[in-house]
Design goal:
This protein is mainly beta. It is 10% helix and 34% strand. A five-stranded mixed beta sheet has the order 3-2-5-6-9, with no helix packed on it. A five-stranded mixed beta sheet has the order 10-15-16-13-14. A hairpin with a 6-residue loop joins strand 11 and strand 12.
């Protein structure tokens, strides 16, 4: 039994190691969609305060980052996943300040200053959530579309011929509601740039289609899997340099609470209105359906709350139609399916018998009757 337990532990160790290796690219490459928080800490007289502890905790996942203000009173909390945070500021001789929720957006460094109040560190001042100050750390011009905007605004469910390669709802259709973006998904232009030249990032990973840069319909994530996105028009940092403008999508994350949904979008000719003189409706059966689920990873002896989370999303698209009504369809007869074309009024030539005719042309033999 001892050997069995040792082998089991080794197997679990290798499994966890493999999972870490598999997940490492997401940690090392997915920096392009992360945000940050910066600001200035002062005392009641307006003088800067160094060595102040600033702790940012994600309200949904429990992820936490602590930094300390520098000698000039400034602080910088980098690499924060987009979401809602509780920011706690503390230093001996001053009351502890807590502000929540503070929203961190995709690829955006927000500014939040703090004015300390003299008192015991055990005393606290709680500040309600509010919008962070205007971004002054970068000259970048861009627009963030939060999840609420994507939920409130309508998006069409189109057929395969009208909605790219998949036919399902395309999350990138929302980018045309942001300033400076024109065209369509076959030729998106950001700030007048050539069509199909934008850089596309998904959780910071490059999703460029080499054959059609800036086109994402073939590999767009499920609509329900996207948390928010940012269109970066111009003057963005040098780390974004693979195109004219950036479409930066952030996927949803698992949280400390289990959550998910099921969805089905239906189009059916039986539900379509029809005019008196239009005749029968053309056949149409169109469905987009799927599910999402996320939460903490819970295993025997391990609770992933505040530490390890998962999120899964799946969607599928089905489109079935038919001939317009009334329709006419010609099918081969039983004789023709058996190779007998004697009833056909014109000869049918066998392409497998093509040969030169000696005059620079080609001839074929007809199928035997």
């Amino acid at each position: 039994m001892k050997d069995f337990h040792i082998a089991g532990r080794l197997g679990l160790s290798f499994l966890l190691l493999g999972a870490l290796i598999w997940a490492f690219p997401a940690w090392s490459w997915g920096q392009g969609s992360l945000g940050g928080l910066t600001g200035l800490v002062t005392d009641p007289s307006g003088a800067v305060v160094p060595e102040v502890s600033i702790r940012a905790k994600n309200l949904d996942t429990g992820a936490e980052l602590s930094v300390v203000s520098t000698t000039d009173g400034t602080y910088f909390a980098p690499s924060l996943a987009p979401g809602r945070y509780r920011v706690t500021v503390s230093k001996s001789g001053f009351k502890t300040i807590t502000q929540e929720p503070v929203t961190i957006s995709t690829a955006t460094v927000s500014t939040l200053d703090f004015a300390l109040v003299v008192g015991e560190i055990t005393e606290s001042v709680t500040v309600g959530g509010g919008e962070v100050q205007l971004q002054t750390t970068s000259a970048e011009v861009g627009t963030v579309m939060p999840e609420k905007g994507m939920l409130d605004l309508p998006i069409s469910l189109g057929g395969a011929a009208t909605a790219g390669a998949s036919g399902r709802r395309q999350i990138q259709n929302f980018i045309y509601l942001t300033p400076g973006v024109t065209g369509d998904q076959w030729g998106t232009s950001i700030n007048g740039s050539p069509g199909m030249s934008a850089e596309i990032l998904l959780d910071g990973g490059d999703m460029q289609n080499i054959g059609a840069p800036g086109f994402i319909a073939e590999m767009a994530p499920p609509y329900e899997a996207v948390s928010e996105f940012k269109v970066q028009n111009t003057l963005y940092p040098a780390q974004y340099g693979a195109g004219y403008g950036v479409m930066n999508f952030t996927m949803k994350s698992g949280t400390n609470n289990f959550h998910g949904d099921l969805f089905e979008f239906l189009r059916n000719d039986a539900l379509d209105a029809n005019g008196f003189f239009h005749g029968e409706q053309n056949p149409l059966r169109q469905n987009e359906f799927g599910a999402t689920i996320g939460g903490p990873v819970i295993l025997p002896g391990y609770n992933g709350k505040d530490r390890t989370h998962f999120f899964f999303a799946w969607s599928s698209f089905r489109l079935r139609g038919g001939l317009p009504r009334p329709g006419l369809l010609t099918l081969p007869t039983l004789q023709e399916r058996n190779g007998d074309f004697s009833d056909y009024p014109f000869p049918i030539y066998d392409p497998a018998t093509t040969k030169p005719d000696g005059n620079g042309g080609f001839v074929r033999d007809p199928f035997p009757n």
